[in-house]
Amino acid sequence: MTPSCPAPARSGRRGCCGRSVSDGSDVRRLRSRLDLDSGYLSRLLRALEGDRLVVVEANQADGRLRTVRLTEAGRAERAELDRRSEDAAAALLGPLTAGQRSRLLTAMAEVERLLVASAVRVVECDPRHPDARFCLRACSCWRPCTPSRPGAEH
Fold first, then answer.
1. Which end of the chain is more exposed for a tag (fewer CB within 10 A), N or C?
2. pTM summary value
3. Distance, first Cα to last Cα, the chain
4. Which residues pair with 70 in a beta bridge?
5. Order of strands, edge to edge, in the sheet holding 54-58?
6. What are the residue boundaries of the structural domains of the chain, listed by start?
7. Lowest-pLDDT range of 16-30, 48-62, 75-89, 113-127
């Protein structure tokens, strides 16, 4: 956790920014995560390539897929944007007392819980479906349904 960032860093992420710090991204996943039209993302990537901030290349595991990676200039630009973002956050959070920062963290955690909960979709499906079986195994209160006596149904 950086002093200016109220949210703890998560594995593979940069605190409250949530940006991946991996060594590249599959273009399809990037398009999905950003919810961008493929044509628009292609134009953005071409512009970033033209500015020498990224390179787009065939995926090493599957040549049909493309991977985008930051260049050295792209990493430097990102570092500058991260620095500016952290400075802006520090300016906002600096005047807060420890108690106010604690209350803010609690409120941010509640917002995250609500947003995650809003993304959950509950649908009825066959209990033999792998998704249903996974959910049932994940529920700590679930026990397989076995009749208490022969011929009894639950």
1. C
2. 0.56
3. 50
4. 54
5. 25-26, 66-70, 54-58
6. 15-95, 107-142
7. 16-30
